[in-house]
Design a protein that fits this description.
Blueprint: H1 36-59, H2 64-73, H3 86-98, H4 102-106, H5 108-127, H6 135-146, H7 148-151, H8 160-177, H9 184-202, H10 208-220, H11 223-226, H12 230-251, H13 255-261, H14 272-287, H15 289-305, H16 307-323, H17 338-344, H18 353-372, H19 383-388, H20 391-404, E1 409-412, H21 415-424, E2 430-432, E3 444-455, E4 466-472, E5 475-482, E6 486-492
Parallel strand pairs: 1-2, 1-3
Antiparallel strand pairs: 2-6, 3-5, 3-6, 4-5
Helix pairs in contact: 1-5, 2-3, 2-21, 5-6, 5-8, 6-17, 6-18, 8-9, 9-10, 9-12, 10-16, 14-15, 15-16, 15-17, 15-18, 16-17
Length: 497
């Protein structure tokens, strides 16, 4: 499945065909009709989920990576070493509205799910011609919202958050562009809009290019689309939308492209089985088990019935499966395909009630644990606690200790640690010594008298250095070595106002 090509599909049942929509294939489909009452209930559920996500966003401390993206937002530019700029722009808007708080950093995440769900709801009308509408739209939006990837991911702010938003909008405009009832001239604005949204998704995370490659495969293998001017005239619009990131890379020796592209050159086939197991296990966890089964079977169904969705899903999946022969695939990388999977799952004709209920229940359990920690797990078994716990007390103690020893700054080489210290405390400025900071327009710190803070590894403590631990409920989560004050040269990170 991962390495094969998409076979020619019968045009009458393809989402790219011009035939009349057929009735549902399975008498066992959910009795979810298009009554106004059920639609109101769906949007009410979505509103409740949005409120829950906003509460989660406000009450869970930032992860170190989120603090890193917050630093980006204090220094907006068209690109960064690790990712494009969109996550920084979203944080800048959110903090302008809600202040430099965890809620401000994450604000646009929960809010973006509402228009994103609307877009997926309407995309299903045209991309799933053999499923009942709007029941198909309701089901697709419910499935996506029930995944842990979106349920918890929408309450955090990472590049995946704007990526999922723009991909769902892209699927809507694409569904209009490929509508066989539209003449090529009428479809042209929708093709241009699809290209712009795909470019904005690329400006969020580079994995969006895989969806573009899948769309290219669908166009080239479908005569009706290949002969239209729309797909070809959309290519310049795509590059215009991508141009800020491309130009930033061109002016910085292609630093970000080389960093991300270098991962494709690894080759460790002996560990492929391990990496494949991690990939599958990660997706079972992030999709939740029953929804994962629906996604997998839906992809198989699309190979026979829906050429467009098959291309959009298979090209990224092929890349990720191939990547396991060189290195592990991070669990969040396939997030770019989740909106496509939510549509593809409906091609099974299966019921979605229990997958949705189980997904929402698992997400709710994770959210309760993240906020209230009713299960007093040891830190290394609680990933949310491990990333977010104890930062406020640790940062304040560290800064007061350093100032008491005559230091005028805190210094850290690790970008995530430096960013988290900059966001959490305002007692001392923070200096980043990692070379990546020189790609920012940040002021040089000169020669500051700073203590160097490093995560303690293997239990060793350098001579004359002290140890300070980040703790929750008197249990250490991570310990750090703190060197005596010395002169350090680096870049001064912005302070939280």
């Amino acid at each position: 499945m991962a390495t094969g090509t998409v076979p020619p599909l019968p045009e009458p049942s393809s989402a790219l065909s011009g035939t009349t929509r057929s009735p549902p294939r399975s008498s066992g489909a959910d009795p979810l009709s298009d009554t106004p009452r059920q639609i109101r209930l769906f949007w009410a559920l979505l509103a409740v989920l949005t409120i829950i996500r906003l509460c989660l966003a406000a009450n869970v401390p930032l992860t170190p990576d989120e603090a890193y993206y917050w630093v980006w937002s204090r220094n907006l530019q068209p690109g960064y070493l690790d990712h494009p700029f969109m996550v920084a722009l979203w944080i800048r808007v959110g903090t302008w509205i809600a202040g430099e708080t965890p809620l401000g950093v994450r604000l646009l995440g929960p809010l973006s799910v509402l228009p994103g769900s609307w877009a997926l709801y309407h995309a299903a009308r045209r991309l799933l011609p053999s499923c009942p509408w709007p029941a198909s739209g309701l089901k697709a939006a419910l499935l996506l919202n029930a995944t842990l990837m979106l349920g918890l991911g929408a309450a955090t702010m990472t590049p995946d958050t704007p990526l999922l938003f723009f991909i769902t909008l892209f699927l809507y405009t694409l569904s209009r562009a490929v509508d066989p009832e539209l003449k090529p001239r009428a479809a042209l604005p929708w093709w241009i809009g699809s290209a712009v949204l795909l470019g904005l998704a690329f400006d969020s995370k580079y994995t969006a290019v895989l969806i573009g490659a899948g769309l290219g495969g669908a166009v080239l293998t479908t005569g009706r689309l290949r002969r239209q001017p729309g797909p070809w005239l959309a290519i310049p619009a795509l590059f215009v939308a991508m141009s800020p990131v491309i130009l930033w890379n061109a002016h910085h020796h292609w630093a970000s492209f080389l960093r991300q592209g270098s991962r494709a050159g690894d080759w460790h086939p002996a560990r492929a089985v391990q990496f494949m197991g991690e990939l599958i296990g990660g997706q079972i966890g992030l999709a939740t088990p029953l929804i994962f089964v629906l996604f997998a079977v839906g992809l198989w169904a699309c190979l026979r019935r829906n050429r467009l969705l098959a291309w959009l899903a298979l090209v990224p999946m092929t890349v990720f499966v191939t990547h396991v022969f060189g290195d592990r695939v991070q669990p969040n990388w396939p997030a770019v395909i989740y909106p496509v999977f939510a549509l593809a799952a409906l091609e099974t004709g299966w019921r979605i009630r229990w997958p949705v209920i189980s997904g929402l229940a698992l997400t709710l359990i994770v959210c309760i644990q993240a906020v209230f920690s009713p299960l007093h797990l040891v830190p290394h078994r609680d990933p949310v606690l491990r990333l977010t716990g104890g930062w406020e007390t640790f940062s304040r103690q560290l800064a007061l200790k350093a100032r008491g020893e005559g230091a005028t700054a805190l210094a850290a080489e690790d970008y995530a640690l430096a960013s988290r210290l900059a966001f959490t405390q305002n007692i001392l400025p923070v200096i980043g010594t990692d070379p990546r900071w020189h790609l920012f327009r940040l002021p040089a710190a000169g020669s500051a008298k700073a203590v160097m803070v490093e995560e303690q590894r293997h239990g060793t403590v350098p001579e004359k250095s002290a140890t300070l631990c980040r703790e929750v409920r008197a249990q250490p989560i991570r310990c750090y070595t703190v060197s005596p004050p010395g002169f350090t040269i680096g870049v001064q990170l912005p302070k939280r106002s």
